[in-house]
């Protein structure tokens, strides 16, 4: 509050006070760390960036690992601001491993800040730094596709796109399996409620198709025909279809209705392809069908008192064929 008042009433003093905050940080007096960090962050836009040297960045790196959530937040906030300045963003690459660890922080503000920093700096880092980070990022980012925050979903999806683009040589070969595992989540998030997440999914899925040299998939993405894309994924062969089927089951319980409906249809496509396959495949599909039937029964119960002519839910069920489809009239 005081620093904000200072910026409004006496902006000419901000630079001097920010310099004092930097000096306090360099002295590393633990008791003063929170106060000095708060002033440093609040007045960072008044700070001479030449003062933010390796010593200050080392302190920020240390605070990223602090047990104190407030210090971690302040460190991430300062890095978000620094990463937004072209002349400083490239100098942050040494902190990227620690920033990446913050993607798993228990604090949502810190996770979002870490995504922002990585999104601003990964492309600017040299190959020696960016490549190993990109390899690790994919495994860390995939669970974030399902985060309740649309910002986290969008940024994590776009960061996967960036990771594919900075990987080179052997890193690309090592990344192929993780990129392939991202195809189904990206496909489902083409149906995301949030248009920015859906757009990010489309861009990243196109990048993944290019990475994996899937020409037909790239072609279908240009036509914007979601179900053709689903069929294309399942056409890779029975082993891939099995893997994709397993990945689709959690989406039957997605909090987003469009993703649940997409999962039902995808399982129907998989059922038709795998109905003559091994018994374990049929069991997986039947398990999915069981979930869908429960969903339909709950939906029918909730709609039993309503009469809405524009929506019809017509389940088509054959256990032997192992698929279900929900038909919904256009508005």
Automatic annotation (TrEMBL):
It comes from the Eukaryota. Residues 57-280 form the Maestro/Maestro-like HEAT-repeats domain. HEAT repeats lie at residues 95-130. Gene3D superfamilies: Leucine-rich Repeat Variant. GO terms for cellular component: cytoplasm. This is Maestro heat-like repeat-containing protein family member 7. It comes from Limosa lapponica baueri.
